[in-house]
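Budget justification aside, the reviewers requested a transparent look at the raw inputs and outputs of the sequence design task funded under Objective 1. We therefore reproduce one unedited record. The lines immediately below are the structure tokens for a 298-residue chain.
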């Protein structure tokens, strides 16, 4: 097209000028929706189940450990020790549905929810490229457990051998270890008497001495000691996690509490094995206890 065909025109102004400030204000007032949370709804539910089932089971555990660990090693009359044990056992076995819901139900829910969380998080778990890189490890990192010896002496954190070897946290590992130990404990002290008598009403503190001194004595002794230490670690570490107590000071307190409970448990095991009573196969209870123990496969 030639320039002669072009016609020059004057610009026509708009009736109202554009308010650039208003445009800027409107653009800045646009609300950007937050990104959607893609975390499955099941994970928060499993976390709540795991939390409250743990608290429920700890209520039973506190009563039980008091009656079989703390009270038996006190310098008081043996009849009082038996009475405390009998009262604690009456709470578990006499209150309607207490044993089914508070003990079995809460423990089963806790285990199942823990396994479910483990499966959901397995593919999402982020690991540092260097397991010993202290700069990438924080107080709330579950791979360090309670910090170990390096934390006690102020040398910083290192990921635990369990985490680097098995790919699970020390808390999870202790939970898996508890399952066979508790199952064996239940078998010896609850199932075997129930299988023969229909209940375990005859079981008292003397029965512990029979278990630790008759059939496979050292196996039962090591099993009971392992149960005490493992439960002590799992409960203390787990409660600290639920309460968000992650700093170094709380980790040291946790280690001290675990060692205290474990040490009291060892004293109690020694008391039942060597000092509690003479294991006799005569008398009504003696014959019943021997029958329980000799009939079990372990």
């Amino acid at each position: 097209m030639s320039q002669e065909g072009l016609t020059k025109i004057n610009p026509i102004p708009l009736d109202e000028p554009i308010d650039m400030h208003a445009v800027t204000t409107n653009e800045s007032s646009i609300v950007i929706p937050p990104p959607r949370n893609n975390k499955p709804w099941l994970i928060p539910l499993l976390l709540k189940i795991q939390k409250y089932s743990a608290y429920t089971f700890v209520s039973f555990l506190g009563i039980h450990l008091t009656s079989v660990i703390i009270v038996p090693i006190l310098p008081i009359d043996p009849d009082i020790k038996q009475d405390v044990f009998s009262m604690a056992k009456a709470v578990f076995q006499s209150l309607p549905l207490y044993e089914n819901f508070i003990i079995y139900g809460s423990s089963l829910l806790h285990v199942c929810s823990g396994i479910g969380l483990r499966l959901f998080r397995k593919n999402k778990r982020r690991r540092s490229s260097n397991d010993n890189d202290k700069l990438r490890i924080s107080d709330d990192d579950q791979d360090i457990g309670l910090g170990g010896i390096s934390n006690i002496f102020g040398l910083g954190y290192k990921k635990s051998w369990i985490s680097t070897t098995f790919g699970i946290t020390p808390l999870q590992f202790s939970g898996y270890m508890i399952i066979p130990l508790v199952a064996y404990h239940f078998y010896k002290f609850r199932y075997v008497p129930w299988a023969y008598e229909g209940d375990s009403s005859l079981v008292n503190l003397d029965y512990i001495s029979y278990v630790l001194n008759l059939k496979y004595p050292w196996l039962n002794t090591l099993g009971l000691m392992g149960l005490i230490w493992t439960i002590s670690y799992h409960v203390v570490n787990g409660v600290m996690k639920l309460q968000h107590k992650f700093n170094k000071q709380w980790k040291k307190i946790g280690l001290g509490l675990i060692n205290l409970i474990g040490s009291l448990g060892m004293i109690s095991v020694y008391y039942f094995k060597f000092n509690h009573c003479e294991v006799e196969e005569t008398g009504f209870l003696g014959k019943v206890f021997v029958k329980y123990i000799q009939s079990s496969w372990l």
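The two ends are 106 Å apart (CA to CA). The first helix runs from residue 20 to 28. Computational costs for records of this kind are itemized in the attached budget.
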